[in-house]
Amino acid sequence: MQLIKALLAQSIGAATVFLLLQVLAIPILWAALLQGAASALASRLLRQPSWWIPMHLLFMPAALVMLHLQLPAWSYLLAASILLLVFWGTIKGDVPLFLSSPAVSHALSEILDREQASAFIDLGAGIGSVTLPLALRYPQVHVEAWEHAPIPWLVARWRSRHLPNCRVIRQSFWDCDLSVYDVVYAFLSPFPMPQLGEKVRSEMRPASLLVSSSFPIPGWEPESVIPLEDRMHTTLYCYRIPS
Ligand SMILES: C[S@@+](CC[C@H](N)C(=O)[O-])C[C@H]1O[C@@H](n2cnc3c(N)ncnc32)[C@H](O)[C@@H]1O
Q1: Distance from Cα 98 to the centre of ligand 1, integer Å
Q2: Residues 43, 9: contact at Cβ < 8 Å?
Q3: Is the shortest distance between the CB of 125 and ligand 1 below 6 Å?
Q4: Whose CA is nearest to atom 23 of ligand 1?
Q5: pLDDT band for position 3 (cuts 50, 70, 90)
Q6: Is 64 in the pocket of ligand 1 (CB under 6 A)?
Q7: What pLDDT sits at residue 135?
Q8: Which end is more exposed in the chain, N or C (fewer Cβ atoms within 10 Å of the end residue's Cβ)?
Q9: Distance 60 CA to ligand 1 centre (A)
Q10: Domain ranges across the chain
Protein backbone atom coordinates (compact mmCIF):
# COMPACT_ATOMS: atom_id res chain seq x y z
CA MET A 1 0.00 0.00 0.00
CA GLN A 2 2.79 2.44 0.93
CA LEU A 3 4.60 1.61 -2.30
CA ILE A 4 1.49 2.41 -4.35
CA LYS A 5 1.06 5.69 -2.44
CA ALA A 6 4.75 6.53 -3.03
CA LEU A 7 4.42 5.88 -6.78
CA LEU A 8 1.26 7.98 -6.85
CA ALA A 9 2.96 10.85 -4.98
CA GLN A 10 5.93 10.77 -7.39
CA SER A 11 3.57 10.72 -10.40
CA ILE A 12 1.61 13.69 -9.02
CA GLY A 13 4.92 15.55 -8.50
CA ALA A 14 6.05 14.72 -12.07
CA ALA A 15 2.68 15.74 -13.59
CA THR A 16 2.74 19.06 -11.67
CA VAL A 17 6.21 19.92 -12.96
CA PHE A 18 5.33 18.74 -16.48
CA LEU A 19 2.37 21.18 -16.54
CA LEU A 20 4.54 23.95 -15.10
CA LEU A 21 7.16 23.39 -17.81
CA GLN A 22 4.49 24.05 -20.48
CA VAL A 23 4.21 27.68 -19.30
CA LEU A 24 7.57 28.39 -17.64
CA ALA A 25 11.12 27.72 -18.77
CA ILE A 26 12.87 26.55 -15.60
CA PRO A 27 16.34 24.97 -15.35
CA ILE A 28 16.28 21.19 -15.02
CA LEU A 29 17.69 21.19 -11.47
CA TRP A 30 14.94 23.55 -10.31
CA ALA A 31 12.38 21.36 -12.04
CA ALA A 32 13.72 18.33 -10.14
CA LEU A 33 13.59 20.22 -6.82
CA LEU A 34 10.02 21.35 -7.53
CA GLN A 35 9.03 17.80 -8.43
CA GLY A 36 10.45 16.67 -5.07
CA ALA A 37 8.51 19.34 -3.18
CA ALA A 38 5.24 18.55 -5.03
CA SER A 39 5.73 14.80 -4.40
CA ALA A 40 6.41 15.41 -0.70
CA LEU A 41 3.24 17.47 -0.45
CA ALA A 42 1.24 14.79 -2.28
CA SER A 43 2.72 12.17 0.07
CA ARG A 44 1.46 14.15 3.08
CA LEU A 45 -1.97 14.46 1.51
CA LEU A 46 -1.96 10.69 0.92
CA ARG A 47 -1.15 10.31 4.65
CA GLN A 48 2.16 8.54 4.19
CA PRO A 49 4.34 8.41 7.34
CA SER A 50 6.56 11.49 7.71
CA TRP A 51 9.79 9.57 7.02
CA TRP A 52 8.71 9.37 3.34
CA ILE A 53 9.10 13.16 2.98
CA PRO A 54 12.92 13.30 2.65
CA MET A 55 12.75 10.38 0.20
CA HIS A 56 10.24 12.20 -2.01
CA LEU A 57 12.17 15.47 -1.75
CA LEU A 58 15.44 13.84 -2.76
CA PHE A 59 14.37 11.15 -5.23
CA MET A 60 14.31 13.19 -8.47
CA PRO A 61 17.32 15.45 -7.63
CA ALA A 62 19.29 12.30 -6.72
CA ALA A 63 18.22 10.63 -9.99
CA LEU A 64 19.52 13.71 -11.88
CA VAL A 65 22.86 13.62 -10.06
CA MET A 66 23.23 9.87 -10.71
CA LEU A 67 22.46 10.37 -14.42
CA HIS A 68 25.14 13.03 -14.51
CA LEU A 69 27.67 10.58 -13.01
CA GLN A 70 26.99 8.15 -15.89
CA LEU A 71 27.47 5.04 -13.76
CA PRO A 72 27.20 1.65 -15.51
CA ALA A 73 23.68 0.19 -15.53
CA TRP A 74 24.70 -2.89 -13.48
CA SER A 75 25.69 -0.69 -10.53
CA TYR A 76 22.03 0.31 -10.07
CA LEU A 77 20.94 -3.32 -10.15
CA LEU A 78 23.65 -4.19 -7.62
CA ALA A 79 22.67 -1.34 -5.27
CA ALA A 80 18.96 -2.20 -5.57
CA SER A 81 19.66 -5.90 -4.88
CA ILE A 82 21.75 -5.13 -1.79
CA LEU A 83 19.11 -2.72 -0.44
CA LEU A 84 16.41 -5.34 -1.07
CA LEU A 85 18.39 -8.04 0.74
CA VAL A 86 18.99 -5.74 3.72
CA PHE A 87 15.60 -4.08 4.01
CA TRP A 88 13.54 -7.02 2.65
CA GLY A 89 9.89 -6.55 3.75
CA THR A 90 10.19 -2.75 4.15
CA ILE A 91 8.69 -2.29 0.70
CA LYS A 92 5.49 -3.96 2.03
CA GLY A 93 5.52 -1.72 5.10
CA ASP A 94 7.50 -4.03 7.45
CA VAL A 95 9.89 -2.52 9.97
CA PRO A 96 13.29 -1.59 8.48
CA LEU A 97 16.67 -2.30 10.06
CA PHE A 98 17.64 -0.03 12.98
CA LEU A 99 20.09 -1.22 15.59
CA SER A 100 19.55 -1.20 19.34
CA SER A 101 22.31 0.54 21.26
CA PRO A 102 24.74 -1.21 23.66
CA ALA A 103 22.75 0.47 26.48
CA VAL A 104 19.74 -1.63 25.44
CA SER A 105 21.77 -4.88 25.57
CA HIS A 106 23.05 -3.82 28.97
CA ALA A 107 19.53 -3.15 30.30
CA LEU A 108 18.30 -6.45 28.83
CA SER A 109 21.14 -8.32 30.44
CA GLU A 110 20.09 -6.93 33.85
CA ILE A 111 16.51 -7.99 33.06
CA LEU A 112 17.62 -11.54 32.15
CA ASP A 113 19.53 -11.70 35.44
CA ARG A 114 16.59 -10.46 37.47
CA GLU A 115 14.11 -12.74 35.69
CA GLN A 116 16.43 -15.77 36.00
CA ALA A 117 15.51 -16.33 32.35
CA SER A 118 16.42 -19.51 30.57
CA ALA A 119 15.02 -18.63 27.11
CA PHE A 120 15.10 -15.28 25.29
CA ILE A 121 13.95 -14.23 21.81
CA ASP A 122 14.53 -11.09 19.74
CA LEU A 123 11.65 -10.59 17.28
CA GLY A 124 13.36 -9.17 14.19
CA ALA A 125 16.93 -9.55 15.37
CA GLY A 126 18.73 -7.53 12.69
CA ILE A 127 22.46 -8.29 12.77
CA GLY A 128 22.32 -9.65 16.31
CA SER A 129 23.15 -6.41 18.15
CA VAL A 130 21.13 -7.63 21.13
CA THR A 131 21.25 -11.42 20.85
CA LEU A 132 25.01 -11.65 20.40
CA PRO A 133 26.08 -9.87 23.64
CA LEU A 134 23.34 -11.66 25.61
CA ALA A 135 24.29 -15.10 24.29
CA LEU A 136 27.94 -14.35 25.05
CA ARG A 137 27.23 -13.17 28.56
CA TYR A 138 24.75 -15.93 29.46
CA PRO A 139 25.94 -19.24 27.95
CA GLN A 140 23.29 -21.05 30.03
CA VAL A 141 20.43 -19.02 28.42
CA HIS A 142 18.93 -20.21 25.14
CA VAL A 143 18.90 -17.14 22.89
CA GLU A 144 16.90 -17.02 19.64
CA ALA A 145 17.18 -14.43 16.89
CA TRP A 146 14.33 -14.42 14.33
CA GLU A 147 15.10 -12.30 11.29
CA HIS A 148 13.58 -12.49 7.81
CA ALA A 149 15.90 -10.16 5.85
CA PRO A 150 18.65 -12.25 4.15
CA ILE A 151 21.72 -10.04 4.70
CA PRO A 152 21.08 -9.12 8.37
CA TRP A 153 20.22 -12.79 9.03
CA LEU A 154 23.48 -13.92 7.40
CA VAL A 155 25.49 -11.37 9.41
CA ALA A 156 23.77 -12.38 12.69
CA ARG A 157 24.34 -16.04 11.89
CA TRP A 158 28.00 -15.51 11.08
CA ARG A 159 28.58 -13.43 14.21
CA SER A 160 27.05 -16.07 16.45
CA ARG A 161 28.68 -19.08 14.77
CA HIS A 162 30.73 -19.95 17.90
CA LEU A 163 27.82 -19.56 20.32
CA PRO A 164 26.06 -22.91 20.78
CA ASN A 165 23.31 -21.30 22.91
CA CYS A 166 22.34 -18.85 20.11
CA ARG A 167 20.00 -19.91 17.29
CA VAL A 168 19.51 -17.57 14.35
CA ILE A 169 16.36 -18.37 12.38
CA ARG A 170 15.48 -16.93 8.97
CA GLN A 171 11.74 -16.77 9.27
CA SER A 172 9.00 -14.27 10.03
CA PHE A 173 8.53 -13.84 13.77
CA TRP A 174 4.77 -13.93 13.22
CA ASP A 175 5.28 -17.70 12.75
CA CYS A 176 7.09 -18.29 16.05
CA ASP A 177 5.47 -19.67 19.18
CA LEU A 178 6.08 -17.25 22.04
CA SER A 179 5.05 -19.70 24.73
CA VAL A 180 8.56 -21.10 25.16
CA TYR A 181 10.39 -17.90 26.15
CA ASP A 182 10.80 -16.20 29.53
CA VAL A 183 11.71 -12.84 28.02
CA VAL A 184 10.61 -11.62 24.58
CA TYR A 185 12.26 -8.53 23.10
CA ALA A 186 11.00 -6.44 20.17
CA PHE A 187 12.26 -3.23 18.56
CA LEU A 188 9.75 -2.63 15.79
CA SER A 189 7.58 0.40 14.98
CA PRO A 190 4.19 1.74 16.12
CA PHE A 191 2.43 -0.01 13.22
CA PRO A 192 2.68 -3.71 14.25
CA MET A 193 2.29 -3.11 18.02
CA PRO A 194 -1.48 -3.84 18.25
CA GLN A 195 -0.99 -7.10 16.29
CA LEU A 196 2.03 -7.97 18.43
CA GLY A 197 -0.10 -7.35 21.54
CA GLU A 198 -2.63 -9.91 20.25
CA LYS A 199 0.09 -12.47 19.60
CA VAL A 200 1.65 -11.89 23.01
CA ARG A 201 -1.72 -12.13 24.78
CA SER A 202 -2.60 -15.43 23.13
CA GLU A 203 0.84 -17.12 23.26
CA MET A 204 3.12 -15.89 26.05
CA ARG A 205 3.20 -17.82 29.33
CA PRO A 206 1.80 -16.22 32.51
CA ALA A 207 4.54 -14.34 34.43
CA SER A 208 6.82 -14.11 31.39
CA LEU A 209 7.99 -10.67 30.24
CA LEU A 210 7.71 -8.71 27.00
CA VAL A 211 10.20 -5.86 26.54
CA SER A 212 9.42 -3.46 23.73
CA SER A 213 11.99 -0.88 22.76
CA SER A 214 10.69 2.60 21.95
CA PHE A 215 7.11 1.62 21.06
CA PRO A 216 4.45 0.80 23.66
CA ILE A 217 1.51 -1.50 23.01
CA PRO A 218 -1.52 0.81 22.73
CA GLY A 219 -3.87 0.45 25.70
CA TRP A 220 -1.55 -1.80 27.74
CA GLU A 221 -0.19 -0.80 31.15
CA PRO A 222 3.55 -1.54 31.40
CA GLU A 223 4.86 -3.07 34.61
CA SER A 224 7.85 -0.76 34.29
CA VAL A 225 9.24 1.82 31.90
CA ILE A 226 13.02 2.11 31.64
CA PRO A 227 14.48 5.29 30.13
CA LEU A 228 18.02 4.82 28.84
CA GLU A 229 20.73 7.40 28.43
CA ASP A 230 21.82 6.37 24.96
CA ARG A 231 22.03 8.58 21.87
CA MET A 232 18.44 7.80 20.84
CA HIS A 233 17.05 8.26 24.37
CA THR A 234 15.55 4.79 24.10
CA THR A 235 12.71 3.83 26.40
CA LEU A 236 12.04 0.19 27.22
CA TYR A 237 8.42 -0.77 27.96
CA CYS A 238 8.22 -3.93 30.07
CA TYR A 239 4.92 -5.85 30.15
CA ARG A 240 4.34 -8.69 32.61
CA ILE A 241 1.96 -11.36 31.28
CA PRO A 242 -0.79 -11.76 33.88
CA SER A 243 -1.58 -15.12 35.44
C1 LIG B 1 14.32 -2.03 14.13
S2 LIG B 1 15.18 -3.47 13.60
C3 LIG B 1 15.70 -4.14 15.16
C4 LIG B 1 16.93 -5.02 15.03
C5 LIG B 1 17.38 -5.66 16.34
N6 LIG B 1 16.28 -6.28 17.03
C7 LIG B 1 18.00 -4.63 17.26
O8 LIG B 1 17.34 -4.31 18.24
O9 LIG B 1 19.13 -4.18 16.98
C10 LIG B 1 13.81 -4.50 13.13
C11 LIG B 1 14.24 -5.76 12.42
O12 LIG B 1 13.08 -6.59 12.32
C13 LIG B 1 13.14 -7.27 11.08
N14 LIG B 1 11.78 -7.69 10.77
C15 LIG B 1 10.72 -6.89 10.46
N16 LIG B 1 9.61 -7.64 10.30
C17 LIG B 1 9.98 -8.94 10.52
C18 LIG B 1 9.28 -10.18 10.50
N19 LIG B 1 7.97 -10.25 10.25
N20 LIG B 1 9.97 -11.32 10.79
C21 LIG B 1 11.32 -11.27 11.06
N22 LIG B 1 12.02 -10.12 11.08
C23 LIG B 1 11.37 -8.97 10.82
C24 LIG B 1 13.73 -6.27 10.11
O25 LIG B 1 14.29 -6.91 8.99
C26 LIG B 1 14.76 -5.57 11.00
O27 LIG B 1 16.01 -6.22 10.90
Answers
A1: 8
A2: yes
A3: yes
A4: 124
A5: confident
A6: no
A7: 98
A8: C
A9: 29
A10: 2-70, 102-240
